[in-house]
Amino acid sequence: MYVGVFAVGIAGVLLSRFRASGLAVTMAAVAPAQVVVTVIALAAGLGGDNPRIELIGLNGMFIAPFGTSAWLFRRAGTSLPRDKP
Predict the structure, then answer these.
(1) Domain spans, the chain
(2) Which long-range contacts (CB under 8 A, 24 or more apart) does 62-71 make?
(3) What tens digit of pLDDT does each residue of 20-77 get?
Protein backbone atom coordinates (compact mmCIF):
# COMPACT_ATOMS: atom_id res chain seq x y z
CA MET A 1 0.00 0.00 0.00
CA TYR A 2 2.85 2.38 0.77
CA VAL A 3 4.22 1.84 -2.73
CA GLY A 4 0.93 3.28 -4.02
CA VAL A 5 1.49 6.47 -2.03
CA PHE A 6 5.00 6.68 -3.47
CA ALA A 7 3.62 6.11 -6.98
CA VAL A 8 1.09 8.93 -6.54
CA GLY A 9 3.93 11.25 -5.57
CA ILE A 10 6.22 10.26 -8.43
CA ALA A 11 3.42 10.51 -11.00
CA GLY A 12 2.42 13.94 -9.70
CA VAL A 13 5.98 15.22 -9.75
CA LEU A 14 6.49 14.04 -13.33
CA LEU A 15 3.16 15.40 -14.53
CA SER A 16 3.69 18.77 -12.85
CA ARG A 17 7.19 19.09 -14.31
CA PHE A 18 8.45 20.33 -10.94
CA ARG A 19 6.33 23.49 -10.98
CA ALA A 20 5.23 24.77 -7.60
CA SER A 21 1.53 24.86 -8.43
CA GLY A 22 1.59 21.27 -9.66
CA LEU A 23 3.64 20.11 -6.70
CA ALA A 24 1.08 21.67 -4.37
CA VAL A 25 -1.62 19.56 -5.99
CA THR A 26 0.61 16.49 -5.83
CA MET A 27 1.31 16.87 -2.13
CA ALA A 28 -2.37 17.59 -1.53
CA ALA A 29 -3.09 14.20 -3.16
CA VAL A 30 -0.30 12.31 -1.39
CA ALA A 31 -1.42 13.30 2.12
CA PRO A 32 -4.96 11.84 1.78
CA ALA A 33 -3.50 8.76 0.08
CA GLN A 34 -1.38 8.24 3.18
CA VAL A 35 -4.48 8.68 5.35
CA VAL A 36 -6.27 6.00 3.31
CA VAL A 37 -3.34 3.62 3.84
CA THR A 38 -3.54 4.28 7.58
CA VAL A 39 -7.27 3.59 7.69
CA ILE A 40 -6.88 0.36 5.68
CA ALA A 41 -4.03 -0.81 7.93
CA LEU A 42 -6.11 -0.10 11.03
CA ALA A 43 -9.14 -1.87 9.58
CA ALA A 44 -7.00 -4.90 8.68
CA GLY A 45 -5.64 -5.08 12.20
CA LEU A 46 -2.03 -4.56 11.17
CA GLY A 47 0.55 -3.25 13.60
CA GLY A 48 2.33 -4.37 16.74
CA ASP A 49 1.18 -4.52 20.35
CA ASN A 50 -0.67 -1.21 20.20
CA PRO A 51 -1.49 -0.79 16.49
CA ARG A 52 -3.54 2.39 16.81
CA ILE A 53 -0.77 4.42 18.37
CA GLU A 54 1.94 2.91 16.16
CA LEU A 55 0.09 3.27 12.87
CA ILE A 56 -1.36 6.70 13.54
CA GLY A 57 1.93 8.00 14.94
CA LEU A 58 4.13 6.61 12.19
CA ASN A 59 1.83 7.63 9.36
CA GLY A 60 1.19 10.99 10.98
CA MET A 61 4.92 11.69 10.74
CA PHE A 62 4.49 11.48 6.96
CA ILE A 63 1.04 13.02 6.60
CA ALA A 64 2.00 16.23 8.41
CA PRO A 65 5.02 17.00 6.18
CA PHE A 66 3.04 16.17 3.04
CA GLY A 67 0.31 18.59 4.09
CA THR A 68 2.85 21.24 5.06
CA SER A 69 4.61 20.79 1.73
CA ALA A 70 1.34 21.26 -0.13
CA TRP A 71 0.71 24.50 1.72
CA LEU A 72 4.26 25.77 1.13
CA PHE A 73 4.21 24.85 -2.56
CA ARG A 74 0.87 26.63 -2.90
CA ARG A 75 2.34 29.76 -1.34
CA ALA A 76 5.40 29.53 -3.57
CA GLY A 77 3.22 29.04 -6.65
CA THR A 78 1.13 32.11 -5.92
CA SER A 79 4.02 34.42 -5.01
CA LEU A 80 6.04 33.61 -8.14
CA PRO A 81 5.19 34.77 -11.65
CA ARG A 82 2.82 32.39 -13.39
CA ASP A 83 4.37 29.49 -15.23
CA LYS A 84 4.48 30.05 -18.94
CA PRO A 85 3.41 27.17 -21.21
Answers:
(1) 2-78
(2) 62/34, 63/31, 63/34, 63/35, 63/38, 66/27, 66/30, 66/31, 66/34, 67/27, 67/28, 67/31, 69/23, 69/27, 70/24, 70/25, 70/26, 70/27, 70/28, 70/31, 71/24
(3) 889 999 999 999 999 999 999 989 888 777 888 888 999 999 999 999 999 999 988 7
